[in-house]
Structures are given as C-alpha cells and as structure tokens.
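Hi all, long-time lurker, first post. I run a small reading group and we've been trying to get comfortable going from sequence to structure in the token notation. Rather than ask abstract questions, I figured I'd post a concrete chain and ask someone more experienced to write out its structure so we can walk through it together at our next meeting. Sequence below, copied exactly:
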Amino acid sequence: MDPAGCLFCRRSVPTSGLNMFYKFNGFTQRLSGGAGPVAYCPQGLKPLVSTETPTMIFATPTKPISELEGGGMHFLGRNKVPDFQQMFQKPDGLPVHLKRGVPDRLLYRTTMALTIGGTIYCLIALFLAAQPKKHN
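-- Answer (accepted) --
Happy to help. Here is the structure in token form:
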C-alpha cells in the first residue's frame, strides 16, 4: 500500500504525527490506535478499479460484420413486431392480456378457476384443521 495515498478511496492520507487514527482490532473487538493509511484502508477492502490488466480470452482478431462472408447475418423469419403493435394498440376496449382472442381467454379463465378453486380448498382445509378431534 502506498503510504501517501489510499488505493481504495483514492485520496491522500495525512502522514503528520499530530493526527491520531483508530482502527478496529478483530482480536480484542475494540478500537486501537493505528497509522493513517491503515485507518483509511482497512484489510479486506479492495480497490474499486483493478490494477491488473485482464487476460486475453480469445487470441483471434475480431472482424466487423461487413467483412464476413456472405455480407453478414440474415434473419430467416418475418418481423412480427409491427403486426403485434397494431394488434395491441387497437382501441377496442379489451385489456392487453385478452387481445389475442380465444387462447388468451382460455388461459385467463383457467387461471381464475384454479385460483378460486385453490382458495376454496385452502379455506376448507383450514376449517377442518381448526376443528378439534373427538376422542372415543
């Protein structure tokens, strides 16, 4: 660590003997006196920016798409976004989750039926669990 500056917080640390610095001692669980750089940069904290250069993963140079064979990648399907935009933005008063017709209505009604059925089943199970058992 550089005594004139802290690697973690990137600011200069006063080094004059007039200032007293404290650090937390993990062994005694108390504050103890310490040098300036140690007080500003406790152990375990690492600098925000790595000082090491990253290792190269791929050694082959990359090429722009325009230089690839065949003139680049081609999408093999049809763009459906404009069709969906027209369908979902149509002012027909239907909520978005029912705009696609029968499949959406079927999924919505099935979900609602399962939700209501599950709620009723839970209430019945709770009622039966709350009843005391009769001992013969």
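A couple of things your group might point at:
The chain has a mean pLDDT of 75.
The CA atoms of residues 8 and 47 lie 4 Å apart.
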